[in-house]
Give the backbone structure.
Amino acid sequence: MKRLVSIAAVSLLTACASSAPKSADFSPGDAEAAIRRADGAFSVNARSGDARATVESFYAPDAVVMPPNMPALRGRDAILPFWTGLLASGSVEIALTPRDVVQSCRDLAVETGHYDVSVTPRGGQATKDAGKYIVVWKKIDGRWWATEDIFNSDMPLPPR
């Protein structure tokens, strides 16, 4: 069975193909391990309810988050209220499961994956969501940061 590569990953590979680094400090797989660690830390910070740590340890200062049903959030100052509101709504469990991490050039990577979220308000029933995401990562000063994050649900819309 052939594996399909996302349009974002193809664009990334095309953009960097002619300028691929030849130096010894480039490791074609250095993004994947770092991104998987960042995903795990994101989930731990979200579970603790610490929105500031969730945002500041994951997103680049000028990152863009594109949640469903609302305008894009540009920069950490705009992203923080989104995560603060969600994490304040109760006990939050977020699991990020990368499907693919495609690295191109020395400092760009695209991650695609699946998320599972459970939010349990104090004294209430858990609300669950599951969906997919794409995150564009950039290596800045030796560290991988999420710069573009878009996600949306696989769940059907509630009946009207």
Summary: Residues 35 and 65 are 17 Å apart (CA to CA).
